What we know:
Shape: elongated
Number of domains: 2
Structural class: mainly alpha
Number of helices: 9
Amino acid sequence: MSQSRSKAIIDLGKRLADQLGDEADLAALWLSHLLAERMAAVEQAEGEQKIAAEEACVRLILELWSKRNSFTDRHRPLRDMDAILRTLAALDVERPDHRYFGSVFRAANPADTPEVAAQWLKFATELDTIAKELIRLALGQAVEAMDTDAADWIDLAAKAAAQEPVEALIVRFVSPGSGGKRDWEKEARAKRVGRLREFIALAEQLADRLERTKRSGGRKAKPS
């Protein structure tokens, strides 16, 4: 194992030790002390003893990380992401195709579709695409409102090449991209505001069209 990865795993271990350091929970406190002792042994040892101490420490950290979901709720890393994770899983917004009637959209032949029907289908696909962006925006706002430390845990796990937490999906989904954080955030927010305004415009078009259809006695009408 490379020295850089060993250091990253030990950094993850330090965070786990802090997480488990609870005097009200003897089992958690014992694990916290055990981690601290193993990490101290690595710092104090030399030569072959240091290599052995580091290997033992790394094994313990990775084992605890792999079993983190068995920790009690107040000690479990990323526990505050549970509600968002359930919402994301239920929405299934990462699927690449259209959520509703995907097979119909894929099989449709524009040449065989009446113009009015084709326009409504296009309108529906635009709504589907924009809805995904709005869901992403809403989840991102939820993550920000929770003031979660999920990104820190996921960054530590990634550097340690440890088992990736499923919560990483959330962080990637609501905060895609990297580098130039401030510029990227400004650009992402502007894009999402634009998407929201597109959705509002499409919804208003649909409402206007339905209202005109109602006034015309139910005759077929094209979307605006």
